[in-house]
Amino acid sequence: xxxxxxxxxxxxxxxxxxxxxxxxxxxxxxxxxxxxxxxxxxxxxxxxxxxxxxxxxxxxxxxxxxxxxxxxxxxxxxxxxxxxxxxxxxxxxxxxxxxxxxxxxxxxxxxxxxxxxxxxxxxxxxxxxxxxxxxxxxxxxxxxxxxxxxxxxxxxxxxxxxxxxxxxxxxxxxxxxxxxxxxxxxxxxxxxxxxxxxxxxxxxxxxxxxxxxxxxxxxxxxxxxxxxxxxxxxxxxxxxxxxxxxxxxxxxxxxxxxxxxxxxxxxxxxxxxxxxxxxxxxxxxxxxxxxxxxxxxxxxxxxxxxxxxxxxxxxxxxxxxxxxxxxxxxxxxxxxxxxxxxxxxxxxxxxxxxxxxxxxxxxxxxxxx
Length: 369
Known about the structure:
By secondary structure, this protein is mainly α. Helix 5 runs antiparallel to helix 8, helix 6 runs antiparallel to helix 15 (310-339) and helix 10 (193-220) packs parallel to helix 13 (253-271). The longest helix has 30 residues, at 119-148. It is built from 17 helices and no strands. The two termini are 37 Å apart. Residues 178-190 have low confidence and may be disordered. 59% of the residues are buried.
C-alpha cells in the first residue's frame, strides 16, 4: 500500500511544478496560475460525494486502480498542451478527480488496517509515502525538464501513474459485512464535523498558497530553481511522521491540531518576507508544522466514525481541504496581480488562524458531551 502511494505520489507531484512551467514557458499571469491549480482541485471536490459513497460500497481497490489510470490519461493530455487553454484545464480536472479517488481510497485503507489507538500514525505514515515523492518528483522533473524538455518529464509521470495502477491490482482489503455496506450513506453530523471540515478548508487554502505562489514569488526574486522548497518541506514533514508519528494519538488529536495550526499561520506570515536563498529553510519550517497538523486534524474528523462510513468522512475531509485550496487560489491570484505576492501570504496566514476558534468550539462540545 505504501509503495502504491509513493508511486502515485511521483506521478502527481511532478505537476507541483506547473506554476513554474506556466510562468516560464507560457508567461502565465497570477490569475492563470490560480486557475490552473484550481482546475485540478475543484472537480475533485465536486466528485467527493460520489467517491466517498463508492469507496464504502464498492471498495477501496477499484478506485485506486481506476484513479491511477485516469491520472495517466490526464498526463498524456499534457503532451498536447501548448498554451493556457481549455485542454490544460480539462487535463488538470481529470487529474484532480483521479487524485481525490486514489488519495482518499489509500488513506481509508490505511485506517482500516490500523489499530484504533494508532489511526493518526497510520494516516501520517500513509501521507509520508506520498511526501517522499513530493521532494523527489519535483527535483527530478526540474532537472529532466532542463535537459530533456517538459514533455519527457510529463511522460515519466504517466509511466508512474501506470505503475501505481499495476501495484493497485495487488492490494488486498478487508472484507466488510454487506449490511454495513448498504447502510453507508452520509457522515454522522451530530459531532462537530462541519467545524473540523472548516478547519481543513482554511489550512488547505494555506497549503495551496504555499505550494503554488511561493514558486513565482521566488522566481521573481531571482531564484533559478524552486525544488529546494519541496526538498526542505519533505525532509521535515517525513521526520515528523517517522519520529513523532504517535504524538497526536498520545497527546490528543484536537490538542496537536490546535497547536500546529497556530504555527501554520505564522509560517505563512513569514513567507511574505521571502528571499531567493531561503527556499529550503522555508520548506523545512512548513514541513515541520504540516507533517504533524494534517494527520492530527484528519484523525480528529474520524473519531467515532464507524468503519462503513470511513470512506465518506475521509472524502469529505479531503474535499474540504482541496476545496479551500482551489477556491482560495482563485481569489489570491487576483490579489497577487494587483497587490503582489507578499500580501497574499499575509492574508492567507490570517485566514488559517480563523480555524483556531472553530477547534476551540470542538473542544468545548467534547467536554459537554
